[in-house]
């Protein structure tokens, strides 16, 4: 575990020597914290969210705290963010819990799970139904804590180079996909390929993969996926939600005074709300822009594929629930929220669609 001194990476007015020796946080000192991310710099959606979180903290802290942002690969790899914050390489990170599924099978529930909660439902679970406390407990062994800090909204099913007209067509396809969706597509006969965001287009262009499932239209358009595969699939049953997470070292958090803790937490909360609004607007614009090229066709996954995916998802989630006591409590809490919120979610969605049609 990192100690208070090296965790903070303090500088006082640029005088690094005196800062390193500082035993604790003093009000007049400027804390300099490094935040690594899983995203290319400025990437639509999560990349922009990471940037805005850092800027918001810096403005609100008024010189007492400064967060320096680093894109994927500048200090650590896209998938190395949790480890970097946990081992003290850096003090903060911006990523997605879905990437830590290999370390913690239940981690995906704090980003999204197939056929799971939507963005507003997920936020209700985290904020009002004990989800945050379960998240804190899950990450505690790693010495980090997390906050929701951005959300691109419901995701699409991905860009495919060739049409998928039945479940049989999926077999043998190489798909860039992460999280529990990777296990589902493997169960359905595809080959899941785990690639960071910065490598997707090259792999698709070279034909080393046949499809990319990433995020929603704004991020997919910004990445340029529509230029390399013409068939854009829905529904995005793999990721009906997609919050980013702001990570901070427990050692750093414990040394922060209450007002700076509040600034960090509220900066993340504000970004989550703003990012969802941004996503709704930007996804609509990006979808229209892609369709305007004449090179993109919106496709629906065939019914037999969706049915098989739903069954596979149920089995995979049951396995996660059985993996540990904590995982079981996370799955149970999540499913309870889904069951209680389901009717209103369906009715409100139907009302919104009817208003659009009218």
Describe the structure.
- The protein is of the alpha/beta class.
- The chain has a domain at 4-151 and 242-280: 3-Layer(aba) Sandwich (D-Maltodextrin-Binding Protein, domain 2), CATH 3.40.190.170.
- 47% of the residues lie in helices and 13% in strands.
- It is built from 14 helices and 11 strands.
- The chain has helices at 4-8, 16-20, 46-61, 81-86, 119-128, 131-139, 167-170, 180-187, 200-206, 217-223, 250-255, 258-292, 303-321, 325-357, and strands spanning 31-37, 65-70, 92-95, 144-148, 158-160, 174-176, 191-193, 211-212, 231-234, 245-249, 297-300.
- The strands form 2 sheets. It has a 6-stranded mixed β-sheet. Strands 2-1-3-10-4 form a 5-stranded mixed β-sheet.
- Strand 6, helix 8 (180-187) and strand 7 (191-193) form a beta-alpha-beta unit.
- It is globular.
- The relative contact order is 0.16.
Q: If you average the pLDDT, what whole number results?
A: 89
Instruction: Note the run of SSEs as H and E.
Output: HHEHEHEHHEEHEHEHEHEEHHEHH
The chain-level structural class is: alpha/beta
CATH topology grouping of the domain at 4-151 and 242-280 = D-Maltodextrin-Binding Protein, domain 2
Largest sheet: 6 strands, mixed
Summarize the structure.
This protein has a domain of 187 residues: Bacterial extracellular solute-binding protein, family 7 (D-Maltodextrin-Binding Protein, domain 2), CATH 3.40.190.
Write the layout of secondary structure elements.
Layout: H1 4-8, H2 16-20, E1 31-37, H3 46-61, E2 65-70, H4 81-86, E3 92-95, H5 119-128, H6 131-139, E4 144-148, E5 158-160, H7 167-170, E6 174-176, H8 180-187, E7 191-193, H9 200-206, E8 211-212, H10 217-223, E9 231-234, E10 245-249, H11 250-255, H12 258-292, E11 297-300, H13 303-321, H14 325-357
Parallel strand pairs: 1-2, 1-3, 6-7, 6-8, 9-11
Antiparallel strand pairs: 3-10, 4-10, 5-8, 5-9
Helix pairs in contact: 3-12, 5-6, 6-14, 8-13, 10-12, 13-14
